Structure formats: structure tokens, C-alpha cells
Amino acid sequence: MYKNKKIALILLMGGVGNRFSSDIPKQFYNLSGKKIYIRTLDAFYKLNIFDEIVLPCKKEYIPQVKEDLKAYKNIKVIEGGSTRQKSSYQALKSLNNPNIVVIHDSVRPFVSKKIIIENILAAIKYKAVDTCINSTDTLVITHENFIKNIPNRNIFLRGQTPQSFEYKLILSAHEKAIKNNILNKTDDCQLVLENNKVFIVNGDENNIKITTKLDLFLAEQLLRLKLEKVTFNIKNKLDNKIFAIIGASGDIGSEIRKELEKQNAKALLISRNSYYKTDITKYSDVKRTFNLIYKKYGKIDGLINASGLLVVKTVDKIKEKEIDEIIKVNLLGLIYVCKYAKIKDGGHIINISSSSYTYGRKNYGVYSSTKAAVVNFTQSLSQELEKLKVNVIVPQRCNTKMRKKYFQNEDPKTLLDKNKVAKGIIDTLKSDFTGLTIEIKK
User: Fold this and answer.
1) Same-domain status, 195 and 142
2) By CB neighbour count within 10 A (0-12 exposed, 13-18 middle, 19+ buried), where does 246 fall?
3) Domain C-terminal end among 199, 227, 255
4) Would you give the DSSP letter of residue 13?
5) CB 201 within 8 A of CB 165
6) What is the total count of domains within the chain?
7) Same structural domain for residues 181 and 301?
8) What pTM does this model have?
């Protein structure tokens, strides 16, 4: 095993993101509320098996990275080189003679525990390891824009990271490369192939490298699918905490109130017909309500936006007044309450969207477009309000009066119980993540 071995991690983050077409390197972009490189780091850090972790990056970003990671232990941030090879070498030189070193791209946030552990065990046995996956596409050898040959793709693999090595082997390989004026290899395994066989560990199609804006979009979808199986890290209690519920008189709002009361938390009910009578489409109403709440309770522990309006009509049949009302209730009012609510540091904002946010739905495109906007707005808000936990809940088709009004022939057995939505919100309030889009399914 590896328990008696000293293991180091190098997380390469010196890239400038030319193919990402951005002013900032891609590793500093947010993926559902958390910087990509931090999501990648967390995949390794949570295993608690690394004696040293080194992050080589551009000199101008070192202060930012150190600030981002001030709560982490045993992290060393150093200036990287002008190429991947130079950054890797600089990081290797900074290590304190470990047995094994694992080298990984900072923009591969979906690396699994299985891949990491298999890399380490194989590196102990074989000294050099690469992570690879099969090629599903046909490979073509070209010459002057014509196909020269189509080889058997079964003998070709696609390389990923991590790549893992006996420390002395990879350090010596880098030093030899420099001596021979080999300065810009894009892969550490290339440097050891001459003197050492490289063992292959199976990678994963999900272990993608975020290189372009399309990759970032795909990463968001991968994270969303991952969250469908999320196990909430429920460690916080809600006793005596105070939460404002927008749309408190609706079906889901009422269920949230009941569940909060079971947790010995206080629910402040806000709607046109609740204790705090408020028209959330009017910013003056919203501002007045939250000023009243602040005077009585001070800053509250969280805000839950459960208001929503659905109208099922084609665009040529829906009335202008209905369009205005859908947009105002589902989006404008939600923005107002997020703006004016006064919430304690560490508190929560939970916005409720709909499964219709993923694409425009026939006959209720105005509704589904507002729900897509809610997801987008919440992701943005999670980046702005760094002292709060800001998430969006996306329920599947739910058994509510509003839905029954328009879909009377649906089998209730196929619909999500509104109480399950409420319990999912309670679990989120007890957890510490932020910037996530959390789907709740039947």
C-alpha cells in the first residue's frame, strides 16, 4: 500500500487560456460557484493522503491563489514557468524529496478517487504511470490534406492526467531533458519513456480537460448530473434560525414552512396573502418588508424564493398582461428580494427554478425562459455574495395546484411530491455548499 510512502501532488495551473478566449486563465473561471482549479484541488485534498501540494502558477496570480486557499493546509504556491515542462520542473524542485509525485492538470476537476489511488499504487510498483482512455473516434493519418492511412484505433489511447512517478525518476528525466535542450514537451511521460516503461491506468470519459467555453458548458452539465446523486453533508442544525419564505401561501411555500417548524426554525411568511403582505413585483414593497424584518430581527439566516407563476398558452394567445406578470413574479420579484433581504454572513439564499429551465417548452416558453434566467442569475449571485451560500433548487414536474390547473389529465403518481422539494431545501440549508444547481426528482 501507500500508507508508508511520502506522496506529493503537483497541480499545474500556469496556463494562460488562449483557446478559452478570455482575459483570465480558464482555471480561474467559476464552475457552479467555485473556481475550476479549487474544484480540482478538492478532489485530491479531501483524500487527506498528500504530504505536500504544490501549485505552480503565473506570478501575477500568486497573491490571489494564496488568498483563495488560506483555509487549506500544506499548500505551496510558486511561480511557474513559461511552458508546461518548465512549470512541472519548478514544482518538482520545490518538493522535499517525496517517494511518489502525482502531476495533474488544474482544469480536470472530475478526476475520481479511483483514478488517483490507482495512479499512486501503480507508481509505487512501476515507477511511471499515465492515465488513458480508449479512442471512440476513427483516427486518420494525413498528408497534404489527403488521407494517407486509417490505422486500427484499438492500439491508440487518449492521454489524460494524473501522471504519477517515482520522484527521483521524474526529476532526473527533467534534468536530462534540459541538458539535452529539450524544453517544451507537453507531457511528463514523454520525458521518461526512453529509460522507463510507463504503465497505463484506465481513465474516465468524465475526466475532461476544460480547454474551451464549450468544455465549461459540458462541465456544468457533468456537475449537474453528479449532483443528482449528491449525498448532502448535513451537519448544521436549524434550531432558532430565521428564514424568510417568498410565496409562503403557495403549495411548496407552505410545505417549506411546515418543515422549518419541525426543525425548530422560525419562518417569516411573505406573499400577497401572508403575514408580511408584499407584492414582490414592486421594489418599494419588497424594500419596506425587509426593513420591517430587519428592525424586528436584525439580519436573518436565509431567504427561500418559492414564488412562481405558470401560464400555459401559445405566444399568439397569451395576453400582454400575463407575459408581464410571469416575468415580474418569476424573475423581477426574485431579483428584488435577493437585493433587499438582509442576511447574516454564512446564511443562505435558495431560489427555486424548474426542470423546464433546460430548454424552451412548447406553450409555456415565457415561463421556462424565466426559470432559465433564475438559474443563470443564481449562479452569478453566488459569485458576488461570497459570504453567503447561494444555490438553486430545480424540482421535477411537481404535484401542485398551479400545475393541476393546466395539466388536469396527468397521473399524480408520475409527479414529484411537493414535500420532497421542501425536504431537499431543508437539507440544503443544513449544508455548506454554494453555487450549485440541485435537481430534485421523483
Assistant:
1) yes
2) buried
3) 227
4) B
5) no
6) 2
7) no
8) 0.70
